[in-house]
Amino acid sequence: MDNQRLFLFFALALVLMLIWQAWEQEHAPSPTVTAPTTTSATAPASAPDVPKVTTSAADVVPAPKASEALKQGARLQIRTDVFDAVIDTQGGDLRALSLRQYPVAADKPEEPFPLMRDEPGELFVAQSGLIGLDGNYPNHKTLFSAAAKNYTLADGQNELRVPLAFSTPDGVQYAKTYIFHRGSYVVDVEFEVKNASRREWAGYFYGQFQRTHTATGGMFSAVPSYTGGAIYTPENKYEKIPLDKMAEKPLKREITGGWVAMLQHYFVGSWLLAKDERNQFYSDVLDNTRHVLGFKNTNPTKIAPGASGVLRSSLYAGPKEHAILKTLTEGMDLTVDYGWLTVISAPLFWLLAAIHRLLGNWGWAIIVLTVLIKAVFYPLSAASYKSMAHMRKMQPKMAALKERYGDDRQKLNQAMMEMYKTEKINPLGGCLPIVIQIPVFLALYWVLLESVEMRQAPWVLWIKDLSAQDPYYILPIIMGVSMFIQQKLNPQPVDPVQQKVFMVMPFMFTAFFLFFPAGLVLYWTVNNVLSIAQQWRITRIVEGKAK
After folding, report:
1. Which helix (H) or strand (E) holds 309?
2. Residue 335 and residue 230: Cα distance in Å, rounded?
């Protein structure tokens, strides 16, 4: 029994250590990346990161690698009810985007979270353009013109259009327009083509992200705070495209529908594609630092001489909030990635969200969820606590056996097993509550870490953010005290060395929980208090019968 308990203790300690390291890695500062060498203001004749079209429309691959920084033109400032954004006339890129309804920190409510930016070492931009077999097409290397430098969504206005213009010598006029919508994180991007030339125009729309590599994960291979690329296809569903794997195996796949995205903790940028639209997904790596993930139409749009046409796509740039993602294209809700415990985490979040809708507070919702989980496992826990109570009652007999056999471990174990058989005690029964809680504990950890709904969500008093650690360490200390009390209710090991190990256990776990999200510590503390009440009651009943 003692060896089994010791093994269980170290297994749980290892799990907590891994979670702590993953949590620490998640909150570590991003590595500094040396800025690429700036080039001249003139665009190169062959842009290295613009998709190419050959005589086969389906044969599209990213262009060769080259050392080239993003150039800047005029900066257009955009402000809506949900965005502060910057569009650069050099390429018409979406170069910066901050989310006004998601502050960077709870104590900085006026500073919006910067999802996109074009700063060295922290590059994350959305690019789009047109390509064709011949002619001069506007891509993200083209210098556009703009009529104004500031655009604001006015009160009572539901749509904000930001137009950019470009014309070619052969008479083709292009108007690239970003369309922002009130209350929406979806931005429409469209190209209107007026073909005043003498020949038919044929072109393809493409959209892509460029992003520098950032450290991810840590000890877990499928942590939900994954930062990198992802795609969704009707055939293979949700697939991650890790940034550090793009150079090894560039993506090149023809797809109907789906989406391509860049994911990070709590937020996502994604090009949303029509269900019946045929595209090719591709990836590339530039300068060993900039990672490109995008799509390109495989069927050309054709416009006769003297006619006009429009090519468009939609971009989502916002939170990984379940209610929002469900309204988007198929599979976007999968960007809320709970890892290998999704089968438990997803139902837990659904139940947690349902409770929150009733109570309006995520902290109280966690407490109610803990009570419900405890109720579900009550029969099994009761059986385990009865076993532990019987073990506690046998402590004097176990001590006598220890004194009789001394250091003869083999005879001592044989005598103890005979006693268990006589008294009809399962020596492993007391381990079940902890074993059962481990997957639920891990699943709830992923829920609290990944769910943007709980980002900066307050509970009471000093707990202003359930997704961050307790700033005053009050909850971890309460949890440690509850664990110490629970330890005292358990049968103590016969081996004095193991007794000392288990006495240290509450202090060590308290040190772990100092760095955990307050919501997770709240769950564990409430669970401990409920376990203490249940175990105390069952122990009194068992010991009362013995008298």
Report:
1. strand 308-319
2. 8
Whole-number CA gyration radius for the chain: 30
Q: Are 66 and 54 in contact (CB under 8 A)?
A: no
Burial of 333 (0-12, 13-18, 19+ CB in 10 A): middle
Residue 185: both structure tokens together: 């994180």
DSSP string, 485-533: HHHHHSPPPSSHHHHHHHHHHHHHHHHHHTTS-HHHHHHHHHHHHHHHH
* Closest CA relative to residue 182, chosen from 217, 155, 214: 155
How far apart, in whole angstroms, are the C-alpha atoms of residue 76 and residue 86?
5
- Bridge partners (DSSP) of residue 195 are 172
Task: Please give the model's pTM, rounded to 2 decimal places.
Answer: 0.78
Query: Does residue 44 sit in helix, strand or coil?
Result: coil
Q: Are 279 and 273 in contact, with CB atoms under 8 Å apart?
A: yes
- C-alpha distances (whole Å) from 137 to each of 174, 189, 214, 298 are 9, 16, 33, 16
Q: Which pLDDT score, from 0 to 100, does residue 40 have?
A: 32
10 Cβ contact list (under 8 Å, min separation 6) = none
* Domain boundary assignment for the chain: 2-21+344-546, 71-213+226-337
Exposed e or buried b for every residue in 90-116, given b needs 16+ CB within 10 A? bbbbbbbbbbeebbeeeeeeeebbebb
Task: Assign 261 to helix, strand or coil.
Answer: strand
Neighbours of 423 (CB within 10 A): 12
* Crossing angle (nearest 10°) for helices 496-513 and 474-489: 160
**Cβ(449)–Cβ(431) below 8 Å:** no
Cα(221)–Cα(545) distance, rounded to whole angstroms?
A: 50
What are the backbone dihedrals phi and psi of residue 177, each rounded to the nearest 5 degrees, phi first? -125, 130
The two structure tokens encoding residue 26: 């998640």
Distance from C-alpha of 356 to C-alpha of 362, rounded to nearest angstrom:
6
The residues of the chain scoring below 70 in pLDDT are 1-50, 52-69, 214-224, 381-399, 402-403, 406-408, 411, 420-421, 423-434, 437, 490-502, 541-547
Nearest to 477, CA basis, from 518, 430, 510, 515: 510
- Rounded Cα gap, residues 58 and 254, in angstroms: 8
Q: What 8-state DSSP symbol labels residue 326?
A: T
Q: At 194, list the tokens.
A: 């007026």
Domain 71-213+226-337 = CATH 2.60.120.10: no
